[in-house]
From TrEMBL:
<dbReference type="InterPro" id="IPR001789">
    <property type="entry name" value="Sig_transdc_resp-reg_receiver"/>
</dbReference>
<dbReference type="GO" id="GO:0000976">
    <property type="term" value="F:transcription cis-regulatory region binding"/>
</dbReference>
<dbReference type="GO" id="GO:0032993">
    <property type="term" value="C:protein-DNA complex"/>
</dbReference>
<feature type="domain" description="OmpR/PhoB-type">
    <location>
        <begin position="131"/>
        <end position="227"/>
    </location>
</feature>
<keyword id="KW-0902">Two-component regulatory system</keyword>
<dbReference type="InterPro" id="IPR036388">
    <property type="entry name" value="WH-like_DNA-bd_sf"/>
</dbReference>
<dbReference type="InterPro" id="IPR011006">
    <property type="entry name" value="CheY-like_superfamily"/>
</dbReference>
<dbReference type="GO" id="GO:0000156">
    <property type="term" value="F:phosphorelay response regulator activity"/>
</dbReference>
<feature type="DNA-binding region" description="OmpR/PhoB-type">
    <location>
        <begin position="131"/>
        <end position="227"/>
    </location>
</feature>
<feature type="domain" description="Response regulatory">
    <location>
        <begin position="5"/>
        <end position="119"/>
    </location>
</feature>
<dbReference type="Pfam" id="PF00072">
    <property type="entry name" value="Response_reg"/>
</dbReference>
<dbReference type="Pfam" id="PF00486">
    <property type="entry name" value="Trans_reg_C"/>
</dbReference>
<keyword id="KW-0238">DNA-binding</keyword>
<feature type="modified residue" description="4-aspartylphosphate">
    <location>
        <position position="53"/>
    </location>
</feature>
<dbReference type="GO" id="GO:0005829">
    <property type="term" value="C:cytosol"/>
</dbReference>
<keyword id="KW-0597">Phosphoprotein</keyword>
<dbReference type="InterPro" id="IPR001867">
    <property type="entry name" value="OmpR/PhoB-type_DNA-bd"/>
</dbReference>
């Protein structure tokens, strides 16, 4: 079974390191970020959970969560970490899509228990309600059969082309660099050039015909799917 990966976002370095050490000792893969801005740049990986501090310099944890849910359509479970413990703060956190709320100071045992509970709940939801179909324009992307169709006509695309399309379609509007795509789709091959991404996307657009317009190139940045 693959290890579950989580992202700890907090502007206190000591706290980041404590959480990272203890969660890794329990078998999780843990990445850390010192700010919401940095965390948003890192979210090209598929994380199972985000531990997110509310009060940070720059973008707050609440603002980051709101951006994830509303703008990026990212449903990764979030546990808020905060020194504030008022009912209004808790309601704010849950209303913008938080899954749990831990008040500072906290014990590592409490964090561990909350993490396990949220991951278990998320796993149950994914098993029963995981979205198996993505519709972009006239494109119908079936994640269970790995097939793409337009007006019920099956489009013959390769495994790599499907993986690229799936990656972009999962987060409409989010720009993925060529490096992001290489790391995700060609993770096991260190000799693939960034030009390979361009070639695959050109072929993919051609196969999709008119619907290829939904795959947009952001010059100097990368690619994204536009609805």
């Amino acid at each position: 079974m693959d290890k579950q990966r989580m992202l700890v976002v907090d502007d206190e370095e000591d706290l980041r390191e404590i959480l990272k050490f203890n969660l890794e000792s329990e078998g999780y893969l843990v990445d850390t970020a010192p700010s919401a801005e940095e965390a948003l740049k890192m979210l090209t990986e598929e994380y199972d959970l985000i531990l997110l501090d509310v009060m940070m310099g720059g973008m707050s944890g609440f603002k980051m969560a709101e951006k994830l849910r509303k703008d990026l359509h990212n449903s990764t479970p979030i546990i808020f970490l905060t020194a504030k413990d008022t009912e209004n703060d808790m309601l704010t956190g849950f209303n913008i899509g938080g899954d749990d709320y831990i008040s500072k100071p906290f014990s590592i045992k409490e964090v561990s228990a909350r993490v396990k509970a949220v991951l278990k709940r998320a796993g149950s939801l994914n098993t029963t309600n995981k979205k198996q179909v993505i519709d972009i324009g006239e494109m119908h992307i079936d994640l269970s059969t790995k097939c793409v169709s337009i007006h019920d006509r099956l489009i013959p695309i390769t495994k790599k082309e499907f993986e690229i399309l799936n990656m972009l379609a999962q987060s409409p509007g989010k720009i993925f660099s060529r490096e992001d795509i290489l790391n995700k789709v060609w993770s096991d091959d260190s000799y693939v050039l960034e030009r390979t991404v361009d070639v695959h996307i050109t072929r993919l657009r051609k196969k999709l015909g008119e619907q290829g317009k939904h795959i947009a190139n952001r010059s100097g940045y990368g690619y994204c799917v536009e609805l």
